[in-house]
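Here is one chain, start to finish.
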Amino acid sequence: MNEIRIQLTKDGSHTLMSSLFDDSYHAHNGAMSESQHVYIDAGFNALNTHFKQVNILELGFGSGMNAILTLQSALASTGKIGRPIYYTSIEAYPLPIEIVSQLNYKHQLSTELAHLFDVLHRAPWDCDVEIIPGFTLHKTHGKLQDFQTSKHDFNLIYYDAFAPSKQAELWTQDNFDKIILLMEKTGMLVSYCANGQFKRNLKAAGFTVKAYPGALGRREMTRAWKE
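Its structure:
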C-alpha cells in the first residue's frame, strides 16, 4: 500500500511523501522552485530552437508539476503556444484525485493555469488529449520497463524518478539504452539527480553528459544530450 502525505516546502508549495518509496516527490527546500530550475529553466527553455516541435518524454507524472510549469512557460510570452508540444508522461502510481485536489499549486498559478492543472489531472490515460491548441498530453499508466511507443522523435526528457537509493531499477543503464533510441539527435535529458553512477550509465548509453548548477542548495543537476 502506498500512503501519500502532503507536506509544505520552504517556498510555500506542497510536496508529497510516498510511504512505498520512503521518499518525497519534490525538494523540501522548494517543490515548485526546484521543478522550475531543473525542468523548465535548464530544460524546456534551453532546448535547441531548431526543433519545430517539442516532444517531451517525462518519467513520473506525479503531481503534474512539470507539466503545468511547461504550459506556463510556453504561454508566458504571448498567451499562446508557439512551438507545438507533445507531452508524454509515464506514471506507474497515479495520484488519487482527492490528493491532487489538496495541493496548493493552483494558488500560485494564474486562473487559466489553475484550471488547466485540473484538466491535466482529469485527462484520461493512455490516449492523446489536446489540453489546449498546441499542447497534447499522453499520460501512460505503467512502468518505463514496459513502455512501448511508435514515437522515436523525443527531443526533451524529464527524468524525474524517485532517487536511485529508493527506486534503483529506474537508474540502470538499460533504461538509458532504451531512451536514447527514442530520441532525436541533439535532444536533451534533464534530471535533478547528479549521482555519479547515473552519469556513468548515461555516458555508457551514448549520451554526452554535463553537470549544471543544481537548485536550492544542491551543488549540481544533470543535463545530457544525444549527439
